């Protein structure tokens, strides 16, 4: 009985190691993103004042560690095109085209915005 218990506990420990390693790796990546964002805040390259930038970077780190931040490949494309649902039916196709990168793009807007423009010919 003692050997069986020892075997089960050892198996549980070994099975838990990959999960712990994955969590530790994700936490390390979140910490690296935070450090990069913090350096950006301190260098003045952000479009925010320093205090706001540092507060947002810290909040993003905390949320990332809790698993609350979306990552690339997640629901971002669906979220972006879902914004087009608020448009009138006649304008939805052009909205989705802009979201997916169609048309003309100008990213030199003060404040870090991006303007996307498409033309639709009405007959």
Q: What class would the helix/strand composition place it in?
A: mainly alpha
Strand content: under 5%
Q: Biggest β-sheet, characterized? A: 2 strands, antiparallel
**N-to-C CA distance:** 83 Å
| Spatial arrangement of strands, main beta sheet | 1-2
Question: What's the arrangement of secondary structure elements?
Answer:
Blueprint: H1 2-43, H2 50-65, H3 76-82, H4 89-99, E1 104-106, E2 115-117
Antiparallel strand pairs: 1-2
Helix pairs in contact: 1-2
Short description:
The chain has helices at 2-43, 50-65, 76-82, 89-99, and strands spanning 104-106, 115-117.
Give a verbal description of the structure:
With about 120 residues, the protein is mainly alpha-helical. The protein has one domain. It contains four helices and two strands, in the order H-H-H-H-E-E. The protein has a two-stranded antiparallel sheet. Strand 1 and strand 2 form a beta hairpin. Helix 1 packs antiparallel against helix 2. The relative contact order is 0.07.
């Amino acid at each position: 009985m003692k050997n069986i218990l020892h075997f089960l506990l050892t198996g549980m420990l070994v099975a838990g190691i990959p999960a712990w390693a994955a969590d530790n790796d994700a936490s390390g990546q979140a910490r690296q993103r935070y450090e990069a964002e913090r350096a950006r805040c301190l260098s003045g390259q952000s479009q925010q004042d320093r205090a706001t930038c540092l507060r947002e970077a810290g909040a993003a780190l905390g949320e990332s560690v809790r698993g609350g931040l979306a990552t690339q490949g997640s629901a971002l494309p669906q979220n972006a095109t879902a914004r087009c649902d608020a448009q009138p039916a006649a304008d939805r196709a052009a909205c989705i085209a802009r979201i997916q990168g169609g048309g003309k793009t100008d990213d030199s807007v003060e404040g870090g915005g991006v303007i996307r423009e498409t033309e639709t010919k009405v007959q």
